[in-house]
Amino acid sequence: MAYLYINSIMDNPSLCDGVGYRTVLFLQGCNLHCTGCQNQSTWDITKGKKIDVKELAKQLREKCFNKKLTITGGEPLMQKDSLLELLNELSDFDLCLYTGHELKEVPAEILSYLKYIKVGPFVQELKITTKPFVGSKNQEFLEVSRDVKTK
Ligand code: SF4
């Protein structure tokens, strides 16, 4: 049985966390510790709620009426094996992942489930409010099938 440590599921869908009107899942745990992070309450994985992946998928199906889901954190790749299970459970969804890692660090198997991905750490000195769906200039928001070369 696979488990994920989650922080929360946003009460209402968001227009700011990827393309379209999206349900947002915050996973718990981040080991990147970017200076200026706005989500420091997600850093300690032991403060998350442990939930069975199949149960979480069921809850997301009930909540996410349009099947557009963004998974953020925290750092989702900290729990990459269980994350992969969740992506597989929701493979018919339009899935977006927010990670602080660079694109080359994202496992190809995870990428294969995603429609969109935001990559790169938050860098306070490069903070920007005019680039869609990112917090700092170094970060990239990519449409996987268009912008990412997979071998
Ligand atoms: S990766 Fe995200 S959650 Fe983690 S420290 Fe950086 S901004 Fe915060």
Describe what this molecule looks like in 3D.
This protein has 151 residues and is α/β, with parallel strands linked by helices. The protein has a single domain (3-147), classed as TIM Barrel (Alpha-Beta Barrel), CATH 3.20.20.70. The chain is 19% helix and 23% strand. It has 4 helices and 7 strands; from the N terminus they run E-E-E-H-E-H-E-H-E-E-H. The protein has helices at 53-63, 80-89, 108-111, 144-147; strands spanning 3-9, 23-27, 49-52, 68-72, 94-98, 116-119, 140-143. It has a 7-stranded mixed beta sheet. Strand 4, helix 2 and strand 5 form a beta-alpha-beta unit. Helix 1 packs across helix 2. The longest helix is centred in the middle third of the chain and has 11 residues, at 53-63. The protein starts with a strand and ends with a helix. The structure holds iron/sulfur cluster.
